[in-house]
Amino acid sequence: MFRINPTLLTLTVFAVGPLTIPPGRAVAQPSPLPAPVPSSTPRLPVVLPTPTLDVLPNGLRVIVVERRSAPLVALDLRIKAGTAYETVENNGVAHFLEHLLFKGTPTRKPGEVDAAIEAIGGEFSANTSMDWAQFAATVPASAWHTALEVLADAVQNPAIRAEDLEVERRVILDEMASAENDPTRAPFHALSSVAFENHPYRLSLYGPEENVRRLTREDVLAFWRARYTPGNMTLVLVGDVQRGDVVNKVRALFTAPASPAAAAAAASLPDPTPLTERVRARPLQRDRSLVTVTLGFRAPSVKAVADSVALDVLLQILTGGGRGRLNESLVRDKKVALAVSASYLTQRAPGLLILTAVGPRGDPQVLEEALLAEVRRLLEDGVSDAEVERARRAALGQTLFQEETFSGQANALAFYDAIDTYEYSVRYAEQIAAVTSQDVKRVIRTYLTPERYAAAVMMPRAPTPPSVPGREASR
User: Fold this and answer.
1) What is the C-alpha separation between 97 and 443, in angstroms, rounded?
2) Is 465 a domain residue?
3) CA separation for the pair 459, 283 (Å, rounded)
4) Nearest CA to 325 among 391, 423, 394?
5) CATH number at residue 201
6) Which residue from 164, 156, 396 is spatially nearest to 257, judged by alpha carbons?
7) Cβ count near 185 (within 10 Å)
8) What is the C-alpha separation between 329 and 272, in angstroms, rounded?
9) Per-residue pLDDT reduced to its tens digit, 29-65
10) For the chain, first and last CA: distance in Å?
11) Among 268, 407, 439, 469, which one is most buried in terms of CB atoms within 10 A?
12) pLDDT in tens, 371-412
């Protein structure tokens, strides 16, 4: 999977820009957990404090990690309220609501939510994905109570004023116009539309323009009432806190009762239809000089732990550190691409392993065939033990580096708990360290199918032929 970074993942499951799409981490494991790492595998150099979980009577999950290495606290609230919970009719409402939650509450005027966090030295960030919405902040340890009070007020008591709705509608339409020309986001949305036929993952994170223009205050409130319930929430705090203090504070702030209907809706998400052939989105033409080709292969869900972890190692082999197989072949040797990337986001339902190549103006088929040639080479030649060892260490290093920070650990715990369980994050590093070359070869054979994939292309707009003066036809 693509290791989640909140600064990169606003409204997209795909990092923005082929030169900045890093491979990242997959999910760890469902219960029961896989076997421990063999003794021959180097032990992990970092041991983080063990997270604790408390589930309140209303269903809200509270995860706390007590870390006292710095006087800071990271908060991450993850809500099962992404586009997978939308319909065709209200597609775009999850993102619209994310915008409006920061516009105030009955007791806070527009701007006062952000101002309250900035006053204590923090800053809120918010993101919407397919499976969840995220609200996060890092603040001084002395002010975590205040940050939690503001966050609880914002998500439980949004004013959603009519005038704010119109302001944010214009903002979102501007964002959509920008995304339509983005060389990775636009092809990704086109790819999803054909790769997830009749599945919620096909829905655009922004929604279609006609939806954004017509969504009403009641539409937004209806989605908020259905999704923003305690049973759909996971709240993570990492830092200089005490578990008992956190749980008591959360219990006092999040007092809404349980909602069995909302919990049932969150539990139901079918698997997408398997890809049985090559399917193509309608080519995108834009006023740009480069060609982007994106291929999507069906990839495992969060439940397929061993495959997910092995795919993370494969991503490192393909593009890790800018020196993977795709880089060496398409960029340095064949010189058909200017940039390449490989990404995989672990999700509740099976998703996509995505290969992308960006090249100069020309025939996009050249880039597609170059990507497929590397897929076939993997299928025919496999990977070496040395490649897997380097890739495994790189993936492990990325994981440990991010989780050294309070916000990084909070982000990982909340992300996995929103799609399954936080325990995946706890055991992920141990599982990645145990991946073998046979594991990587298995996922290559299982998922990289050159006869079954989805494709999307963005290319330069065809020039308009110059008008040629002519004589008026005789009558």
Assistant:
1) 38
2) no
3) 7
4) 391
5) 3.30.830.10
6) 156
7) 22
8) 32
9) 233 333 333 334 444 555 789 999 999 999 999 999 9
10) 68
11) 407
12) 999 999 999 999 999 999 999 999 999 999 989 999 999 999
